[in-house]
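Ticket #4471: complex job returned nothing on first submit. Input attached below:
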Amino acid sequence: MMGETRNEAKDRSGKNLVSATRLINENSYRERMITIFTQWEVILGFLLLLVFLFFMNITPYFLDGFNLLNTTFTFTEKAIMALPMMFIIMSGDIDISVASIIALCSFAMGYASSMGADTVTLVLIGLAVGLASGLFNGFFITKVGMPSIAVTLATQSIFRGIPQAILGDKAYTKYPASFAYFGQGYVGNGSLIPFSLVFFLVLATVMGFILHKTRYGRKVYAIGNAKEAARFCGVKVNRIRFINFALMGLFSGIAAVLLTSRIGSTRPNIALGYDMEVITLVVLGGVSIAGGKGNLFGVLMAVFLVGYLKYGMGLVNLSAKAMIITTGTLLIVAVLLPGFLNTAKAWRKLKQQQRS
Amino acid sequence: MMKFPVLGKFKQRRETSLIVLIALLLIIVTVRSPGFVSGKNIQRIVNDTSILVMVSIGQFFVILAGGIDLSVGSIIGFSGMAASMLNENNPALPAIVILLAGVSIGMLLGAINGFVVAFGKVPPIIVTLGSMSIYRGLTFVLSKGQWVTAHEMTESYMQLPHGNFLGVSNLIWWGVFVSVILYYFSNYTRSGRQVFALGGNKTAAKFVGINERKITMLIFTISGLVSGLAGVMWTARYAAAVNETATGFELQTVAACVIGGVSIAGGSGAVPGVILGALFIGIINNALPVVNLSPFYQLLIQGTIVLFAMLINTVSEKRREKKLLQERLA
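Support reply: We reran it on our side without changes. The output follows.
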């Protein structure tokens, strides 16, 4: 009996060995295509294409160079915040205080401006207040050891509570003329490229480099995959988480500068709801909320997908509420879909193995 | 030296320190304004806080199991709007039917949350962050941006919270009713104890045969149910259903839980603590105008209190763990 089966296996010249039949030829053209097209970033790319095709057909105003570039003004602030949020979510934390950090920064800048500060000082103040807020969060999360959701839930109220307590129903509306450049200006003379878009792309390159090409980035992935294991391997987990939150604060400060400069006024309810949108961008970009998965390219795709989806919806006169429903749905679908995809893939593999 | 273990336990409980804190708060405010601690005013404060108490207890179960429900404010908004519109369009319908409809809608919305969390294996914070905006958006879609105002509501609908029984408003009775039932659920039913087990140690809970999906569905449904009830009460009490009803309310409910000694990581806490936490917030909100602070300070004060409460929770938990470790080593 034993000999027979062995012979049979040999007769087929090793090609049909039991172990070999259970393997799927992963180098086949079809398999490679499937791997590529089920990649999250590629799916997002197709969705983006779909959004473009769909709205191009509905309205002639969609595919307009000026419009397409100009509409980036509306989402670069959130996009900039999505960059450090990527680091935070990747390492298994969350920050839901970012919109309130913007409110605090914007308030500080508005106050300074009413005291007669010039543009450079305003920007520095915005960045400093943002960084300080991030450090505040980071301190309680890593030094005191409280869960990030708990701390940022509290600071969400505190950071917005300060401008609300002092400003009440009033607003700061006086800013120096040159301050308007950050959120409204274009690069160079007469060009159509918004400064904020270029700035975002530069920041994205830097953050992408840090995430994918430096030891710091590798450590973030390591923490997200297995915090304890990373710690035992000598990764200073808490230091990296602390830096993440500090970066988040700083970038929220940058976003605050851009937003305040763009709308030219500060009310306590400025940027309300931005935290959800930023988290949506990151999660939609394929960053796993459980940590350890995702890349910059996915987040970039998500930024432009959501941005242009909203722009298109705005063009066809869909209300802001419809957009809110859409982003909320996108968020939930984005977290559900990878799970379904994985299950489907595993099921398919199993079927193939059974067949052969 | 004689030891009083019972007294020691009594001292450790969050409820005791909260009662002391509330008493202190009342004394301070009374010094500024002697009328504050009159029977009538206390009843007014409790009446104001009843809705917060209900929803906070619902939130408590979700936090207890290690999750969080950020959609409660939106569920209140949606079910309140739906119930009010039902009342507006069918004035002949008895109030109790509308109440049941509102509660069922809330339950359904909560169950949807629970379903996605339990079967999609998605963290509750992400799901409810999404459904928070979806439900709020749907409220606008349902109402087409319109309000339902006092003269469009029937008297019997508005009597749901405003009526009296034994000299105490119905709203307070509703709060008491929900508190008692959910207290019973948390301490004396199998499912209630399973929520504690699941929050304390998920892996261990699964090994002893606790159905995680069932419990997750259950707690989100409860949270939705009380939010639905709260939606009906809210709109009937203020005799207005606006689209922004209870925006940001989720923060207050989480705050009530945290102040009440509920660990945000799950597994520990108690219903009485949550009730006291909610009352604490209610008293502060009512005391602000008395001490001449504008209501704009509410957010800042609340956030600061929550941060401190969490700080105390974390530090005392760590101390307890350390003590446990030392005892084990000795």
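The first strand of chain B starts at residue 164 and ends at 165. Closing as resolved unless it happens again.
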